[in-house]
Amino acid sequence: MTTRKYWRGSAAACVVLAIAGTYAISHRNADASVSEAHGEVAATNALSGITGTRSSAPDFSSIVSRYGAAVVHIGAKQAASRDENGEGGRGGEALGSGFIISQDGYVLTNNHVVEGADRVTVKLTDGREFHARVVGTDKTSDVAVLKIEASNLPTVKIGDPANSKVGEWVVAIGSPYGFDNTVTSGIISAKARQMSDDSPIPFIQTDVPVNPGNSGGPLFNLNGEVIGINSMIYSRTGGFQGLSFAIPIDAAMHVKDQLVQTGHVSRGRIGVGVQPVSAEQAKSLGLDSTRGALVGSVDPSGPAQAAGLRQGDVIVGVNGARIANTTELMAQVSQLTPGSTATVNVWRNGGERKLSVTVGAQSPQVASASPRMQREPQQQQQPDQARPRLGVAVRPLTADEQQEASLPGGVVVQQATGPAAAAGIQAGDIIVAVDGKVIRGPQQLKQIISQADDSVSVTVVRDGEEASVTVTLG
């Protein structure tokens, strides 16, 4: 299932930023660029201190005292790498947040907090620090699962985001700029926000103040339940400006279960291209609202075609759950098990009918970072190091990666800073050409960039899609 894809380049007034904080190894300078509860305690006891009036915020102290110890500080150290000029750059440490979901040490956080790290540590509020094993990561959802060797740990309580409402109070706990166990609050501003055209995650939008270092921390409702993982902000400055986004916890737990059980994530696919239903289309189709997802194309060899879906159908339900928009459809389908049978409700010729679809599997991607999410932390520049013209650290494609992606050549971006990052290039992208010249390896890229004028057109592949971006060289 696809929708129209696009990129936001450096000319955009606002950008969506991951909120993992990046610092020098010494931690002296912040880089502003950007279950079951422990013990048998009734939920009502944790909430006994929550009160509020029309003119004042609730008292969140009971939530913090009950579950604050389950929120952890995460440090992800990355070794030094080399840029396209062959020059070495020092490593850095991304600082983020996470939370304990089991007493035996499973921790949830964001993928972009630990991506590319050589060593990950988890620090508890009682001062204990553990080396963490990365159980698995998923770029598409931006979820990572860690494991520390400990027992009888405090845990959070998992809630149901479907029961949350726009306008309700929510609380975030995390480590903005390394200030551990910082508590901020706000309200749910919107639900089911789609942050890129191909993302299956229906983000929860809030106005809770979150900043670099909050990435991976929990978003609590007033029942003391985690309903989301704080992941991104929308900003002109790189700091908080009233728009923050959290991954719904049910989607994150679905990913977690697969990573723990199999080490990878499988997602369902039915093989349709969809778009929102406009008011004019709803009227012409005999619908009483714009709810649903209009089928614009059907993969001729996909599951939907075999089940009888047609272009012009409006998908209004999946397995009994009503579909409000394309974001909800993508979220529902992605969580279906490949090989299972799903009931899809479609609106056709003035009436609703049910079709039985055998769910297919989404193809694994070499690079699966969401186009509008800047997930790779910025690294501080060495004072005595010349600013790289392009600003990428790359490696050659492996034979398997090249075959899987069906590419004539290319190099994988491991880090993107400076001009490359400003143009929207990210870790995980595959650079396949510069100014139309196919890239066969890092040395060729270095040579082309060294001889280029002030700007170049860089062709990259991300999520199986090819796009060209203009990079103004340093």
TrEMBL record:
Matches recorded under PROSITE patterns: PDZ
Top-level lineage group: Bacteria
GO biological process, one term: proteolysis
Signal peptide (UniProt feature, chain positions): 1-24
Main location: periplasm
One Pfam family in the UniProt entry: PDZ_2
Keywords from the named record: Hydrolase, Periplasm, Protease, Serine protease, Signal, Stress response
PDZ domain location: 259-327, 370-464
Protein name, as recorded: Probable periplasmic serine endoprotease DegP-like
